[in-house]
């Protein structure tokens, strides 16, 4: 029984870290008080210790204890023994590079597919898709591969942004970038707006939060789906 | 005598393709009427032919003839024989991947260092830096390396964007992304705002256009430099 929350962002505007998700996280992690945190994505370049403290403070509010994976000698065994896993946001290239370096991608995939509850936010959500090719992050390091966990049969674009009206900036919009992705790749992409998440319960993949999501399929016009939509048939 | 224009963007808001640069391009390419265009970056996924037509139309205005590199059988020899080179914008990952695939990076570097005048816009400017690690583009394909031409001893961030005041978006600002880059890399980064370019004449690297540029050095606070600034000592 796969149980996953794939969240666009850890923090919504004006809110505290993870606050808007705490009720859902109590439910997701109801069978364990201990959660393994993987701080590899290092937002703002913060240290693993500081990032783990931040996650710890948030999970304390719902009575859960956080350990950082870097506190253990053997990351593979640590993933194997975890009863709940949280991969936080930051830079997806740095995260994926470190997951490959420590050889834990296949272990993570197996654990989560076997029912270990998982929370991903931002970069931690990108890796739930087939590949990290639809991250918004800057490629500050080169990972050996862009292939990720494939927990869902499509790609995620977190922090999805609509074109800014009347913008004078000539850089690509998010939609343009995803259209370019589809010149070279065929899997669908779900653009998740901040405050949205996908709640995966085995074969149900339900859009949660108050916003619509934007779906990009190869050779189709993009379309919006409402909160409550089930992505079960998207592949 | 190295002669290069490294432009943040091909097009400024409200303008036509390359229009704001045409006077400078007449000067840059004054010794040749024929310019080789490299359309590999494929903005919006357009074909090489269509992209080359677009460049052709712009350069016609200053009496220059454009050929697309894809119209020739041997890209390496074509670069070697070119009297002027223009690499247009689009997706930097796609561009760099194709440059590696066709084995023309070292030829490009040699030609330009030996004096073949070069124009880069956006992705074509990113590759003038030491690496493409500071592109803004989506990683829609995985190139074999992020190492680029190193025509200047720092990295370029084109389409540089200041934080948007009162934005409720929680994704990283450009400045945050470049700070994260400096957790893993030490070379300076020049953030070029749209409408700015660097005019390289051998050892003079002068900021042109009406805007300041933002310079990021490892372990230093970022700072602004005025139009007319010489980056000769930045390394």
Describe the structure.
The structure is a homodimer of 235-residue chains. With 235 residues, chain A is of the alpha/beta class. Chain A has a single domain (3-225), classed as Rossmann fold, CATH 3.40.50. Chain A is 25% helix and 19% strand. Chain A has a 7-stranded mixed sheet. In chain A, strands 6-7-10-11 form a 4-stranded mixed sheet, with no helix packed on it. In chain A, strand 6 (155-157), helix 7 and strand 7 form a beta-alpha-beta unit. Chain A is globular. Chain A starts with a strand and ends in a 10-residue tail after the last strand. The A-B interface holds A 9, 11-14, 42-45, 90-91, 93-94, 132-142, 145-146, 159, 161, 164, 168-172, 176-185, 194 and B 9, 11-14, 42-45, 90-91, 93-94, 132-142, 145-146, 159, 161, 164, 168-172, 176-185, 194.
